Amino acid sequence: MKILLIEDEAALRDGIIAYFTEEGNICETADDYASALTKINIYNYDCIVLDLTLPDGDGMEILRELKRLHKNDGVLIISARHSLDDKLSGLNLGADDYLVKPFHLSELKARVSAIVRRKNFDGNNLIVFREISIDTLAMKTVVGNDNVNLTKKEYDLLVYFIANQNKVITKSALAEHLWGDEIDLSDHFDFIYTHIKNLRKKLVEAGCNDYIKSMYGVGYKFSS
Amino acid sequence: MKLAQKYNRVNLITSLIILVLSGAIYYLAIHYILTNKLDNDLKIEEEEIIASVLKYKKLPLPSDFKDQKVTYEELKNKEPAERSFSNTSYYNPEEKEIEPGRSLLTNVRIGKQDYKVTITKSSLEAEDLVRLIFLITLGVIAILLISLTIVNRFILSSLWRPFYETLKQLKAFNLADKNEFSVQYTQIDEFQELNQSVISMSDRVRQDYKELKSFTDNASHEMMTPLAVINAKLDTLIQTEALSDQQGELIEDVYLAVNKLSRLNQSLLLLAKIENNLIKDEEDIALDILIAQKIRQFKELFTAGDIRIEQHLDNQHLLMSKYLADILLNNLINNAIRHNVQGGGIKISLLDGRLSIANTGSGKALDGSRAFERFYKDSSSEGTGLGLAITSQICNLYRYKLTYNYETGWHIFTIQF
Description:
heterodimer; A: Rossmann fold; five-stranded parallel beta sheet; 8 helices; 25% strand; HisK_dim/P_dom (chain B); phosphoprotein (chain B); EC 2.7.13.3 (chain B); transmembrane (chain B); kinase (chain B)
């Protein structure tokens, strides 16, 4: 997928790029408003990751410009402002999602993947990873030919893992993804373990390889 | 005691004393004058008797005197009595009753014979006059006191109205409110000065507060980006291959600290936002449904802590921000879980416009006066110390009453809507 990252903070930009570029994605960057405008005028992207506060302009203006150009690029806003108004006006201006800083790169990746998936397949699509295929519309998981009955949380976990395949994902990122940041789970990481154990068991029972590796202390990794 | 009351009291007591004293002096003075006049009349009678004795060498007949009684007594071998005035009684033959009188005792000599002469005159008229004057004085005192009271009450209360108006606004003064002081125009210099001082003071305080708040706001925002950088770098760091278990543990601790820091920051921002009244998306919220939803959401945490949950939810609709309602419930339920004990319990009841969330926990009551302060927390608490401050701030915003109680092992937080 082709991604444009509009972010003025160099350190953050580098981190995101490093996380995204590996698996053959094309990832371009713009560090200010002017260069961002140039790029969206010339190219099309599957997803634009947009920081709202730029040194020489308002990120909202880029959304307006996209709308004016009738572009169909997916947009994910990343902002330091946890403001409901910003979120609503961003979504009203055509953004697909809104992520508040600080965030986990795995969360960003999962959200960008979801946006790209929706854009490319018009909401009717399959996530395929080797013998696992997931129908995100019907929320159905199939291993080989067998239907695997997953709970909502196990399903979310699996989709998240596949979006971040071959990456180490921290327990806190998983917890935040599954329960949202409303519940402070810092001292309750055991839950994640329980859900992962169940997911692993169900997949293996359906004849799937065990792709989930536990990385001691840090988290988990989903890799072939 | 109110100033007007105090002033009135002093004023009235002083007036009363002065008026009573002057009434008494007045009474005594008139009494003296009238007695003097009576005595003069008696002296004139005496002179007439003496003149008549000198002229006719005999005593005039007692019946010759009108409006007064004259008696003679022959003094045999007795020393003549001293001439003196005295108060006696007087029999009024016309009215046929005894009246107060004034008499003069004197001596008359005819030839060698001494006579004691008593002239008595009714002092009823004089007494009546004194009584009348005394009554009038009393009446004047009463009228004066009553009118003083009334005038004081009305004039003082209208004079002090601007003061009370200012006082009322001072009492209702809230830093977070935007509305300005609206002072009443007054002609009294002191009150004008007071109003101006109050206005300038409130402006100054507001300005300072605003700067402090925008500082908090900016500082928190500025901190978010470096936090995001730390997080992103950590996420990248753990992707490197040769990460030992020990390093993994260290990194996890850093993650937890960063997570806590960003929560803290977000809480501070949220507090500033609520105080600035920046969250205005009020909507109709079915609280009972929202609570039931929260209980489902927290279900795993209840199970993990082996916490029994009892709930009684009646219908309750509120007009508030969904975002804040979520935070309010999350904070209270999170607290009830976090400070609970293994195998404890939580009781949630929504009854008669009152939500109470009770949990078992440490057998020691919180300091109720400080529980809602920022950064007040148990030394063992893992939280930010802002949860209850935010909860109380949300309650303030919507004028709900949040209270904390401790009853035999249960920590109870109650919100009265």
